[in-house]
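Budget justification aside, the reviewers requested a transparent look at the raw inputs and outputs of the sequence design task funded under Objective 1. We therefore reproduce one unedited record. The lines immediately below are the structure tokens for a 643-residue chain.
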């Protein structure tokens, strides 16, 4: 019975969910990007307004400062040129103050103690109630030589703008002083510090300039000293500046900025509101103009835009969700019908009719394909039964062939009557049956014959050729013949009826079990490896000889070596050295020699087994491409039976 799909598991629900989630993420990302971009644009707009206001305001304040500096320098030159009588000094001071009563609050000519005719003298004049008042700052309660406006120019010997202070005993008002040292030129050209000329600027002198600065509706500017002290505040016109920064925090920010100008990246909280600060340096005095703008005012329009965007996005998502729901229902209804019909086919009902929707689209194509599949499946099932019977017969025959092939191979590695020779071999076919072979048998009381071979090709033909080769070799068991003679006779017999031009490579040898003399011959096979304790493995020098099965009268040669007690001969097929890993790299002869370096003293069964394991570990998950055969033969000292 076909299961009914729950709505929450249906294509309709998942399609709507994925479209809604993806669209929501995209819309949210777009809104966030627009918010950031618009806010940045607004910040840049404020920065442009501030730059324009800073240029205008800075020019006006710089003009004021330059006027004071120029006038003070002029007074300094008068004093240095000899206007040193009280009347002349007072006249010069009054002349300076009369130039701009609104700009100049007061001025002084203060001599270094005991340099004005042996006395302390600081001439000072200032405006009071529209009249100029003359006084002498040489008052014990004031002690002018210890004030910054005097000590800094004396120490640094250059002009200086002071920090704001209250002039107690002098002008008795808050002011900033521009101080210029003056000197006496000695006959030898050196200059001696004689005192300081000052001009006092009341902080209210720049109040009008600051009051005229407006950034948007609520933003304004203030004058800040290099130490972060507020010199001039904007006029509040009866309203408290709710957004005024904390003076201590403001001083820390100014010091941190050092010589930098521009927007301060952090918000400075005021009384419940956040503000933006823009700092601009005035190079003349080291002061700064600090422009203050409330965040709420700048971002007010951004909030309106954000609200409209949010409402539009929500409405758009709802409309999109309904549209996707309608579309998905329209397109998934035929698919649901096809799912029901294919469910019947899956249960074995191959006679069900597949509904066609006549749309000429992918769904109609799918319906047609399912119907064709149903028809083909009926035919396939009918033929599959016949094929399975035949396949089972072939599989059974292959199992029997594997069993028969393996029965040709010697499994008992104990050699009756021979105790000083150990032999062991392993054969792992790449398929159910293979073409590798090995054999060994006694030819008489002293001689032991052994051989390893590799038939060209794989599968059943190679297995049959391998069986014939083994049979022909065993037929030579009791003949007085050399290894080359055996190869010659077997090769001749194989070539007589070899219509498919198959061939086999063979290495064979006859070992004298008493003397250890090994006589061997080769028919195109790989060279064996001789293992010796304490020495490196070496390749066995092979005589020339072609493969068996392609020449009716092949010619082979014999060679011989004297095996010493404890030496082991390892013979293998190309399934060992040509095994490949996932990178299509061969196991190779060098790796084979390296692996066998420390195996000379191990049992022969351990040598064959460990070499096969090493080959499989190297190949890892790569399928075995060729049959693997390994034989190990060890000769030990012959001990005659004296019994």
């Amino acid at each position: 019975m076909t299961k009914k799909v729950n709505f929450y598991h249906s294509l309709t629900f998942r399609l709507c969910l994925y479209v809604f989630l993806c669209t929501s993420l995209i819309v949210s990302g777009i809104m966030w990007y627009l918010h950031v971009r618009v806010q940045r644009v607004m910040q840049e707009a404020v920065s442009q307004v501030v730059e324009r206001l800073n240029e205008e305001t800075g020019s006006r304040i710089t003009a004021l400062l330059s006027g004071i500096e120029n006038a003070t320098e002029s007074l300094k030159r008068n004093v240095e040129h000899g206007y040193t009588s009280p009347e002349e000094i007072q006249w010069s001071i009054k002349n300076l103050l009369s130039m701009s009563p609104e700009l100049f609050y007061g001025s002084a000519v203060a001599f270094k103690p005991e340099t004005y005719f042996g006395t302390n003298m600081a001439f000072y004049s200032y405006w009071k109630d529209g009249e100029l008042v003359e006084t002498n700052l040489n008052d014990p309660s004031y002690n002018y030589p210890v004030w910054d406006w005097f000590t800094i120019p004396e120490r640094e010997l250059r002009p200086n703008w002071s920090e704001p202070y209250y002039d107690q005993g002098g002008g008795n008002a808050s002011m900033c002083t521009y101080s210029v040292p003056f000197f006496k030129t000695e006959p030898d050209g050196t200059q001696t510090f004689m005192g300081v000329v000052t001009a006092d600027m009341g902080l209210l002198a720049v109040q009008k300039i600051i009051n005229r600065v407006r950034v948007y509706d609520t933003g304004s500017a203030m004058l800040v000293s290099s130490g972060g002290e507020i010199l001039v505040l904007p006029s509040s016109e009866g309203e408290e500046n709710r957004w005024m920064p904390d003076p201590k925090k403001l001083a820390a920010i100014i010091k941190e900025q050092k010589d930098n100008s521009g927007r301060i990246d952090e918000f400075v909280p005021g009384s419940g509101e956040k503000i933006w600060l823009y700092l601009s340096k005035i190079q003349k005095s080291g002061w700064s103009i600090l422009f203050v703008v409330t965040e709420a005012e700048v971002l007010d329009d951004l909030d309106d835009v954000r609200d409209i965007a949010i409402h539009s996005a929500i409405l758009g998502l709802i409309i999109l969700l309904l549209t996707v729901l309608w579309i998905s229902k329209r397109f998934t209804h035929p698919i649901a019908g096809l799912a029901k019909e294919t469910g019947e086919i899956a249960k074995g009902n191959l006679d069900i009719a597949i509904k066609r929707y006549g749309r000429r689209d992918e769904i109609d194509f799918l319906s047609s394909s399912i119907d064709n599949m149903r028809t083909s499946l009926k035919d396939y099932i009918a033929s599959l039964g016949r094929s399975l019977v035949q396949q089972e017969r072939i599989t059974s025959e292959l199992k029997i062939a594997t069993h028969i092939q393996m029965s040709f191979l010697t499994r008992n590695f104990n050699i009756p009557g021979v105790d000083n020779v150990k032999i062991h071999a392993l054969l792992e076919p790449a398929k159910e049956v293979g073409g590798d072979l090995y054999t060994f048998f006694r030819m008489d009381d002293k001689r032991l014959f052994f051989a390893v071979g590799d038939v060209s090709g794989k599968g059943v033909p190679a297995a049959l050729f391998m069986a014939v080769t083994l049979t022909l070799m065993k037929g030579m068991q009791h003949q007085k013949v050399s290894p080359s003679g055996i190869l010659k006779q077997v090769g001749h017999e194989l070539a007589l009826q070899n219509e498919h031009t198959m061939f086999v490579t063979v290495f064979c040898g006859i070992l004298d079990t008493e003397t250890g003399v090994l006589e061997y011959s080769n028919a195109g096979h790989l060279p064996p490896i001789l293992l010796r304790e304490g020495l490196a493995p070496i390749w066995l020098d092979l005589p020339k000889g072609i493969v068996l099965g392609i020449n009716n009268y092949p010619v082979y040669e014999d060679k011989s070596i004297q095996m010493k007690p404890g030496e082991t001969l390892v013979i293998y097929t190309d399934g060992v050295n040509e095994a490949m890993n996932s990178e299509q790299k061969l196991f190779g002869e060098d790796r084979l020699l390296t692996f066998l370096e420390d195996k000379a003293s191990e049992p022969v069964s351990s040598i064959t087994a460990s070499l096969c394991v090493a080959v499989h570990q190297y190949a890892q998950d790569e399928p075995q491409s060729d049959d693997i055969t390994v034989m190990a033969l060890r000769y030990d000292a012959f001990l005659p039976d004296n019994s």
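Residues 1 and 9 are 18 Å apart (CA to CA). Residues 82-205 form a domain with the Beta-Lactamase fold (CATH 3.30.450.20). Computational costs for records of this kind are itemized in the attached budget.
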